[in-house]
Write a structure and sequence with these properties.
There is one protein chain. By secondary structure, this protein is mainly α. Helix content is about 95%, strand content about 0%. The chain has a domain at about 25-75. The chain has helices at about 1-50, 55-75. The radius of gyration is 20 Å and the shape is rod-shaped. The two termini are about 35 Å apart.
Amino acid sequence: MMMGILFLFISLYLMFKITGVLFSIMGGLLTFILTLLFGAIAGVLIMGLFGLGMLVLPVLLVGGILSLIFRIARM
């Protein structure tokens, strides 16, 4: 009886742990996609205004990739 309860708790804990990791990755991907989207919009706007969009877009792209990598590494 005691082992059954213990097993239940351990399996629940592992389930939460795994779903937490999955949600964290999903959050990272969502942030990454939003960063790309806003980066593209900002790049187009800035390119229209100053013609500097080609300089800004890669920086935002690299920033989005780095934030994704750090988020996965931090787990």
